[in-house]
Amino acid sequence: MSGATMDHSLSVIPETQPDESKRLGDEIESIRNQIKSFSSRRSVLSSALLTSSASQNLSDQTSSSKNTRHTPNFDPKSILRTRAREATNLNLQNLHRMCAGVTMFETHDPDPYAVDGGKVLGVRIEAFCRGTKDFLSPYYLLLNHPNPESSALRVHRHTVPPSIPLSQLAAKYLPEAPSTLLTPGKHPRPQNLPRLVQELRREIVSYHRRQDAVKQLQNEIDLRVRGTASGNVLTNIKEVRSADAEVTDIRIEWREDQLGKLKIDKCGRIEKAVVMGSNRKRRKSLERMLMSRDGHLSNLSALIQNIEVG
């Protein structure tokens, strides 16, 4: 009986129209993006206000005042000092992460059978995301000495993404010492840890910049398709995506059955471009335009505006 009542109650609920449901979903996502933007703006303004000289002077004056009255559970001068101290520490931390993108530290491997008594040299690498305007989780590279009689280092553990060629970089800048039994008299190539860290960070930063550029382009196209952005460009784009984990092969599909494939170098420049028109013929003039000196992943949105017609 209760099941029949439930079925009857569900049957009288009017179905939401697809267009109305999409419109509501777009509005909800737009509101969420606005809340995120306002929250970020609030954090920036709060930090700037709390660390300003005027706030510091007000805090000192409030601390030296003897006539200030407050309830036991609410001490405005203590709250002001605490918030200002937290904001100052956060600014110093961000400044350190921005200016010193690489830091080294010593740690210990808890494994009782670890080589070299468990001694580990750690490298912390910072990267900034332009899309979220925030620092990403740090990447860690842990090294040890596999041979106690040698100072040669070896990669022990790491949190580097698989799309970063760490193995190739380690083989180039941290070569292993050859065995004296197999290659007598051969001198090993010297290791260069600073160069390894420099190249590794460059790879990580470039990788995230390419990722951010593709995501920004996808968001821009999505907004224009919904009609929430000004202008009518990019509305004929069906999809933009990366065809590989390294974000070096970009695929663009148009609604007019056109297809574009771009090869991006590690710095974000467009090395190669192939654009096929709806008639299955290559549009070489557009390919040359994409590979010009302005051909960069960061301004790809402005370049593909000319590809939408035809």
Largest sheet: 4 strands, antiparallel
Strands of the widest sheet, in order across it, are 1-2-5-6
User: Spans with pLDDT under 50 lasting ≥5 residues?
Assistant: 1-13
Spatial extent as radius of gyration? 28 Å
Structural class: alpha+beta
First CA to last CA: what distance?
63 Å
Principal-axes geometry comes out as flat
Seen as an oligomer or otherwise, the chain set is single chain
Mean pLDDT: 77
Number of H/I helices: 8
Question: What percentage of amino acids are in beta strands?
Answer: 15-25%
Order of helices and strands: HHHHEEEEEEHHEEEEHH
**Number of strand segments:** 10
**Overall helicity:** 40-55%
Your description of this structure?
With 310 residues, this protein is of the alpha+beta class. Helices cover 43% and strands 17% of the residues. It has helices at 2-11, 18-50, 53-64, 76-99, 166-173, 193-226, 284-290, 300-303, and strands spanning 102-108, 119-125, 128-129, 134-135, 139-144, 154-158, 237-242, 249-254, 259-264, 270-276. Strands 1-2-5-6 form a 4-stranded antiparallel beta sheet, with no helix packed on it. Strands 7-8-9-10 form a 4-stranded antiparallel beta sheet. Strand 3 and strand 4 form a beta hairpin. It is flat. Mean pLDDT is 77; it is low at 1-13.
